[in-house]
Specification:
With 417 residues, this protein is an alpha+beta fold. The protein is built from ten helices and 17 strands. A hairpin with a 5-residue loop joins β1 (48-52) and β2. The two termini are 32 Å apart.
Length: 417
């Protein structure tokens, strides 16, 4: 584990924020800076078949060291950081032997990471925490995953007595803007299944995520002098307000949890002549998800019938619940669960209230549950990660590789003991 912390600090020092408004892949040129560093690192630790394509997708192999056929498994993490908060000039702070109290991230700006607000901190008393300096995000999402995968591969290279089958790894751009899997070459990757190392606290193991869609409501009105507007003015703002009033008021992110779905209006702008609403639709249940989309259509039809044909609705599906693709090969979840338990880690199996590259990859033919990388409070100045959690993630990767070689045959069936 000696290199794990140094490796992580090297990676977070590179600004890799993605840009949702860019049309290129990767969406920002600066993602290449880390991509080139990773390629060199993979060569240095002894990985084989190291490649990087024109879109900055990195892949590499660790050949099998057993004399029998076992499945090829993969591990995947993303290079980019969220555009929601600055990732430039990240200056991590290291808090050794955390005492359970407040951590002053930035004294001059009075930014404090406190367990009175972030209760999860109390799980890590006595451990080494890596935090931000209060002015940027940290980038543990998902540079922790990258550091963990590379460290695990290095460990396997250096310890050939640990038997494993063929292993593939990949690092992707633009996950944070929903494009991490868009140009992923599943056939080239060649794994039977994979795991994204992109979860949060120790023990997280996820194979369910939201069904997701985005919607745009465009309302065109008619502007007339307000003194002479009766029966003539059509207020796009008024219709937009009426539209929003017909959505269920409690089915929003701030009032839902677990498998409860929601509508989330994230952009609203308007004038008399034109109003626009942008929202996202999320639900774990496929039937409820379709009902949510139908509700938007029903509201549109109702208001167009009432006011005239002033509303245009467009809905775009984004990703689906990977549970549909993972459950038929559930042994891949069981292996990860057993790996954690054998290391004294209690698995936390729960649905993701979001999506991962794995949700898209699962529908592209690569079943891909998600495993913890160890970080907390992603996408903001309060982000932190315990070093011990990263070490445990490395151990889980190694153990999954070992268990797969021992227990699973090439048909994906557990071998009899």
């Amino acid at each position: 584990m000696d290199r794990l912390l140094d490796r992580f600090l090297e990676f977070v020092a590179v600004d890799t924020q993605s840009d949702p408004y860019s049309k290129s892949t990767p969406s920002t040129q600066k993602q290449w800076d880390l991509a080139k560093k990773l390629v060199l690192e993979l060569h240095q630790i002894g990985m084989q078949d190291v490649s990087i394509d024109e879109n900055a997708y990195i892949m590499a192999s660790l050949p099998s060291n057993v004399d029998k056929e076992v499945p090829t498994i993969g591990f995947i993490s993303h290079m980019d950081t969220s555009p929601d908060f600055s990732g430039k000039n990240v200056k991590p702070k290291i808090v050794k032997d955390y005492d359970g109290g407040d951590i002053v991230l930035n004294k001059s700006k009075d930014i404090v990471l406190s367990p009175s607000y972030f209760e999860d901190l109390l799980q890590y008393k006595g451990q080494t925490l890596i935090t931000t300096d209060g002015t940027t995000l940290l980038g543990a999402d998902d540079k922790a995953g990258i550091a963990e995968i590379i460290t695990a591969m290095e460990y396997l290279v250096q310890h050939p007595e640990i038997k494993h089958g063929p292993i593939r790894i990949a690092f992707t751009p633009d996950e944070e803007i929903g494009r991490g899997a868009h140009k992923f070459d599943v056939k080239k990757f060649g794994a039977d299944w994979a795991y994204t190392m992109d979860g949060s606290q120790v023990g997280e193991l996820e194979y369910e995520n939201f069904n997701a869609a985005s919607a745009e409501i465009r309302i065109e009105g008619k502007s007339v002098h307000p003194g002479y507007a009766k029966n003539k003015m059509v207020s796009a703002i008024g219709i937009a307000n009426e539209f929003l009033g017909l959505l269920p008021t409690r089915e929003v992110p701030e009032h839902t949890t677990d498998r409860e779905g929601f509508f989330h209006v994230h952009k609203l702008k308007g004038e008399i002549e034109l109003a626009q609403i942008e929202l996202i639709i999320r639900d774990h249940d496929a039937g409820h998800f379709e009902a949510r989309k139908q509700l938007l259509t029903d509201i549109t039809n109702k208001l167009n019938k009432k006011h005239g044909e002033y509303i245009q609705l467009s809905i775009d599906d984004q990703y689906r619940n990977m549970r549909e693709k993972v459950e038929p090969v559930f042994h891949i979840v069981e292996i990860a669960k057993e790996a954690m338990e054998s290391l004294g880690i209690e698995p936390i199996i729960k649905p993701i209230r979001g999506g991962t590259d794995g949700s898209q990859l699962s529908f592209m033919g690569l079943p891909c549950p998600n495993i913890f990388a160890g970080g907390h409070n992603f996408h903001g100045k309060y982000e932190y990660i315990p070093l011990e959690s990263m070490e445990k993630a490395v151990q889980v990767i190694v153990k999954i590789c070992e268990l797969t070689a021992i227990q699973i045959n090439t048909h994906g069936k557990r071998k009899k003991s």
